[in-house]
Design brief:
The protein is mainly beta and 315 residues long. It has one domain. It has one helix at 298-301, and strands at 12-15, 29-34, 40-46, 74-75, 79-85, 89-95, 98-99, 107-109, 112-114, 119-126, 129-137, 142-145, 161-164, 167-169, 173-175, 177-183, 188-193, 198-206, 210-218, 228-232, 234-236, 239-240, 244-250, 253-258, 264-267, 269-273, 286-292. It has an 11-stranded mixed sheet with strand order 9-8-16-17-18-19-3-27-26-23-24, with no helix packed on it. The protein has a 10-stranded antiparallel sheet with strand order 5-6-10-11-12-13-20-2-1-25, with no helix packed on it. Strands 4-7 form a two-stranded antiparallel ribbon. β18 and β19 (210-218) form a beta hairpin. The two termini are 19 Å apart. The model is unreliable at 1-9 (pLDDT under 50).
Length: 315
């Protein structure tokens, strides 16, 4: 997840709560971040260092070693809706036949509201066509982000997921949302959490090098709960969406270790990635995070409501 750069960032605490798995479709990596004063942070996804050597991708599901028979599942009527389709962006929503959460979260774009969507896909139109770069699962609060594909690839794979907002456990970590509103003119998702707090996820940059999100939380997440987390998959260094974690302990000083090793550290920035090419989701991006604990100005605090003023475009 990466950040503000304008003010000094305090330490937050990151814990490696991951566990071993043999299933490449299971999110066994869990790294929650704790920091009761964090109100702003950036999440950045970049291509892995080896992307220029990658001529073909491997992103097909691999259920070898998986047993998901005990996972909860609720039945729904499948459907696909186009919530937005402009010269720049498209937002498409999907309801699945089965999903692990029974709730329905209203999703608003302009005057239109849709309920019962399990997946939102945000696309950018380029001279190569329509490229998906961001997804949100409204009923459990999971996001995925990736840069636009390189010239050698038709598309890139998603890898790690992340959570933003007050995280809780209900069989697995999740964030409960009460509504999602997307403002196309400033490429911003406005989030209402079930806890009563609010969030903003703004698309700050998207190109074939990086995808960057600016995230704001109001008020900050307290009560000992994480304000953000990374979820991912690691079976081995060759079968992994993330295999290493690096953290900044002071400007210019980083530590790095394998994702399976214990971690409980104060950090100012984080990097989750891979050095070796994975046979699963080979092009999956590297994720960075950094944060800020300065108080929001009154103008910035006003950006958290629906229909925010134009000044919020680059808040």
């Amino acid at each position: 997840m990466a950040a503000d750069g304008v003010v000094d960032a305090p330490f937050v605490r990151v814990i490696n709560a991951s566990r071993a798995t043999r299933c490449a479709e299971e999110d066994n990596v869990y790294a929650p971040l704790f920091g009761g004063e964090v109100v702003r942070f950036r999440i950045e996804a970049t291509h892995p260092a080896y992307i220029s050597r990658l001529k073909t991708d491997s992103s097909a599901p691999d259920f070898t070693g998986c047993d998901m028979r005990s996972d909860p599942a609720f039945d729904f009527t499948p459907r696909t809706v186009t919530l937005l389709d402009t010269a720049e962006l498209a937002l498409v929503g999907h309801s699945f036949a089965r999903f692990w959460r029974p709730e329905s979260v209203p999703v608003r774009v302009g005057d239109r509201t849709e309920d019962g969507l399990h997946l939102l896909q945000l696309f950018l139109r380029t001279d190569r066509g329509r490229s998906e770069f961001l997804v949100l699962y409204p009923t459990d609060g999971y996001w995925r982000l990736k840069p636009l594909p390189t010239a050698a690839l038709v598309d890139g794979a998603y890898g790690s997921s992340f959570l933003v907002g007050p995280i809780e456990e209900q069989g697995r970590p999740l964030v409960r949302l009460s509504s999602v509103t997307f403002e196309p003119k400033d490429r911003t998702f406005h989030l209402q959490f079930r806890s009563g707090s609010q969030g903003i996820v703004h698309v700050d940059a998207i190109n074939d090098i990086r995808a960057v999100l600016e995230v704001g939380l109001h008020p900050p997440v307290k009560d000992g709960r994480p304000f953000a987390a990374l979820r991912s998959m690691f079976v081995s260094p060759q079968v992994a969406d993330v295999a290493e974690v690096a953290w900044q302990v002071e400007p210019g000083r980083w530590r790095i270790q394998e994702i399976g090793e214990p971690l409980d550290e104060p950090v100012t920035a984080l990097r989750f990635g891979r050095s070796a090419i994975s046979t699963h989701n080979s092009s999956a991006p590297i994720c960075y995070s950094k944060h800020s604990a300065r108080r929001l100005t009154s103008d910035e605090a006003g950006c958290f409501g629906v229909n925010p003023p134009d000044a919020c475009r680059r808040w």
